[in-house]
Design a protein that fits this description.
disordered N terminus; alpha/beta; single chain; 4-stranded mixed β-sheet; globular
Length: about 500
């Protein structure tokens, strides 16, 4: 008998056994009880203590019962909506992402969502190729590229804007993204003032607070600091966000050998302890709040002590962390599409490909940091374009091989018979595009056809695609009047922070 679970056994990559997952979880609970975490935010400390935690200054030790109770409050899924727009035609486009904890072996490949990263201090200029400081317009370009590419599901700004008041860089980043894409966005905020400005921008687009709460089109990106610390600023913005119905992506982590133990197991305990203590504070503030945990649990480079974004350990530990999140029924954010290379080259292609494949096969819910070069310090639009093609390949692998009466095609095999061919059959024409992936960037032409088409390398085609998108792609327009409201919000923020105009 055929059914959904027997017809397609989804390809997957698994790091941990059930026994190892349970042992890591129990070790994390012991760590939170015995070692605890530093919680620098007074409101979060008070929430935890009132629920049964013990505080000694900023050090808070959390009993396992508190973790288990707050985990039960956290929903296994939530939706991130596409932003509203002026056009009715665009309003009818696909409406949301389902951000959900996956059951690895049977989950839908479409439940793994890919996006870029944020915070790069430098940017590879798409016109000159030079490495320069990130400036205004770069987050817009990154959002525009992701809006046009079919395999990016949400948007982050890729760059840390350098030519505005430093306190407002995150606000300008969000303002540029919201005008350049309809896809869901994940901004960050340096301060509560930043988040309030971002929220006001979102209200200008959504229309009112109830509409935004009902259909949030952005989630706040927030982090703990390894090892085992929740900063005052990040926790303040996190608690404000969930109080106002904004989903939160809360990342923990550590670098094996420096800010975490040198072993993978120890690094995972640090990352999970940070995540679960953050979830506890979030759920105590707003029971049922939408939250996605995650981390970038990588190894330090043994020669420089820098975190290594291109290491195999990053993909290995991220996959293991994803499995822990699945066990706990929490959505998870991982990392892929990044490289330690300083430009788009063979190294970047190798590292990005390994990460995308393993992230997809591990069932991570949200996968970020595509477009990162040089230890998350350089943003590259070209790497985004290449990673889009890599994601498309990975998603074909993730579909697996469905085995049903229809796909076995025994009647067709009998009809064609020995020595026949299948290329002209109706069934082949009907199913070929669903079964056989066709690249949009890489060349499969024979030599003669390739030469006749100009002999372009993949780098040539990548640059052409970046240039074409930046000059021709038009995102869905903002609702009427939203752009003017956003400009007024930015001007007021500038006045507050600098006492002058932009």
């Amino acid at each position: 008998m055929n059914n959904g679970r027997t017809a397609c056994h989804r390809p997957h990559f698994r790091v941990l056994s059930d026994f190892q997952i349970e042992r890591l979880y129990q070790a994390t609970l012991r760590c939170l009880e015995r070692t605890g975490v530093n919680v620098f935010n007074a409101e979060a400390r008070a929430l935890l203590v009132e629920a049964g935690a013990e505080a000694e200054g900023v050090r808070v030790r959390l009993p396992r019962g508190l973790i288990e109770e707050t985990l039960a409050m956290a929903p296994p899924s939530f939706r991130l909506w596409h932003r509203p727009c002026a056009s009715r035609e665009d309003q009818d486009a696909p409406a949301f992402l389902e951000v959900c904890a996956t059951e690895l072996e049977w989950s839908d490949p479409d439940c793994v969502h890919f996006g870029p990263g944020l915070t790069c201090s430098y940017f590879l200029d798409p016109k000159t190729g030079e490495r320069r400081r990130t400036r205004r317009g770069d987050p817009r370009s990154a959002a525009l590229i992701c809006d046009a590419l079919p395999n990016f599901d949400y948007v982050m700004g890729l760059g840390l804007i350098d030519d505005v008041a430093p306190e407002l860089a995150a606000v300008y980043e969000f303002a540029e993204m919201v005008a350049a894409t309809r896809k869901p966005m994940i901004p960050w905020a340096y301060s509560l003032e930043n988040l309030v400005d971002i929220y006001e921008i979102a209200l200008a687009v959504a229309g009112d607070a109830e509409s935004l709460r009902r259909r949030p089109f952005f989630a706040l990106f927030s982090t703990s600091q390894a090892p085992l610390q929740h900063t005052d600023e990040d926790m303040e913005t996190t608690l404000w966000a969930v109080e106002h119905g904004i989903p939160v992506v809360y990342l923990g982590g550590g670098s094996a050998g420096s800010t975490a133990p040198v072993t993978g197991a120890g690094t995972l305990v640090i990352a999970l302890a940070s995540a679960l203590s953050g979830v506890a504070a979030i759920q105590l503030k707003s029971p049922g709040a939408a939250v996605c945990i995650g981390g970038v649990p990588q190894a330090m480079d043994l020669r420089t002590a820098r975190p290594s974004y291109g290491s195999p350990e990053l993909s290995l530990y991220s996959a293991a962390f994803s499995e822990l999140a699945q066990y706990l029924r929490l959505p998870f954010m991982g990392t892929a599409g990044a490289s330690e290379s300083k430009e788009l080259d063979v190294q970047a292609a190798v590292e990005a490909s390994v990460q995308v494949i393993l992230s997809g096969l591990s069932g991570a819910t949200l996968v970020h940091d595509a477009g990162f070069l040089d230890c998350a310090d350089i943003g590259s639009l070209e790497l985004l374009v290449l990673t889009d093609e890599i994601i498309a390949m990975a998603r074909r692998v993730m579909l697996g091989v469905p085995v049903t009466d229809e796909t076995l095609m025994l009647d067709l095999i009998d009809e064609v018979g020995p020595g026949g061919h299948f290329i002209a059959t109706v069934e082949t024409a009907k199913r070929c595009r669903d079964e056989i992936w066709v690249p949009s960037l890489m060349s499969r032409d024979p030599w003669e056809a390739w030469i006749a088409d100009g002999g372009k390398t993949i780098m040539d085609r990548i640059k052409d695609r970046v240039r074409t998108i930046l000059t021709t792609h038009r995102p869905a327009p903002l609702p009427e009047g939203a752009a003017e409201k956003i400009a007024a919000i930015l001007q007021a923020a500038e006045m507050r922070e600098t006492g002058g105009g932009t």
